[in-house]
């Protein structure tokens, strides 16, 4: 099982390390435009192997895509991250050009791959990848909701003072500071609705912290986060390679689901060997529907700036 990761920076290299450490794939190829960088990251990760006890082979390539040939999954993390004070949407110009160049090269060598998009602004870059390649929507999945949901569960665990492992929760909508929708009504602690365990103010605090989770870390770190993003991507890759059919909120092209068409946005998806196996249409109440429609409008507005 071979995975290519384009962009050997913070998120790409972390994802490679998680995939190797958890033995999710047998081979990982990191590709980066910066000369020597991907080779260096790959060598560093491989020098973990004897202590961390994994057999996955991690290779690096300075923009030579022949090494990526016949990957089952291609992860796209290449592009610039935001700096404190910026929105993800401000990255659109630079990153759309990067996505265009890498998609064409990657597809040439791995014509049957499933693509997992990470580059921001995520929902728009996922749509860009679809437009550039003309691939079926099943094969291009944007990773945003897996990360946002992990943050949601973390903030719930902090507020409830319970282990994160005992908490379930999902975030849908756009992967943006104001567009994501933590579904608090569906969140549970061991099956018990968190809405029965937290006050309305506490619930609002958790949702707010989740929505600005990426911005908070960007302010603290000076660049955007990588550990949780890398782990979230690895989980999506794992569900594809093993055909686990896990339900993971991902940004995919809607074709009538949730009453929407022509945009990629986070919705609950069944992720398996074909990529997007199914979109799950959960019931949204009036308030959630209103938030979803606002999120759809915001993502459409960002998409208008796309020139690829
Ligand atoms: N969807 C999500 O949930 C998340 C998305 N992101 C996004 O992921 C992207 C990467 O973030 P980081 O890894 O932190 O950035 P980074 O700057 O650490 O790494 C990006 C890498 O891409 C490489 N690159 C640029 N152009 C390239 C090209 N044409 N071909 C190959 N490699 C190229 C750079 O040389 C760099 O090594 C950003 O756009 C960031 O906003 C980050 C975290 C979460
Ligand atoms: O905040 C950012 O720009 C990076 C990202 O998407 C995240 O960490 O959620």
From TrEMBL:
Gene3D superfamilies, alphabetized: Lactate dehydrogenase/glycoside hydrolase, family 4, C-terminal (3.90.110.10), NAD(P)-binding Rossmann-like Domain (3.40.50.720)
Positions contributing to substrate binding: 82, 88, 120, 151
BP GO annotations: lactate metabolic process; tricarboxylic acid cycle
The keyword NAD appears for this protein: yes
SUPFAM superfamilies membership: LDH C-terminal domain-like, NAD(P)-binding Rossmann-fold domains
Catalytic activity: (S)-malate + NAD(+) = oxaloacetate + NADH + H(+)
Residue numbers annotated as active site: 175
InterPro entries in the record: L-lactate/malate_DH, Lactate/malate_DH_C, Lactate/malate_DH_N, Lactate_DH/Glyco_Ohase_4_C, Malate_DH_type3, NAD(P)-bd_dom_sf
EC number in record: 1.1.1.37
Binding site for NAD(+): 7-12, 32, 95, 118-120
Pfam family, one: Ldh_1_N
One MF annotation (Gene Ontology) recorded for this entry: L-lactate dehydrogenase (NAD+) activity
Enzyme superclass (EC): oxidoreductase
Keyword terms of this UniProt record: NAD, Oxidoreductase, Tricarboxylic acid cycle
Residues in coiled coil: none
Domain Lactate/malate dehydrogenase N-terminal: 1-142
Domain called Lactate/malate dehydrogenase C-terminal: residue spans: 147-301
HAMAP family: Malate_dehydrog_3 (MF_00487)
Function: Catalyzes the reversible oxidation of malate to oxaloacetate.
Similarity remark: Belongs to the LDH/MDH superfamily. MDH type 3 family.
Protein name: Malate dehydrogenase
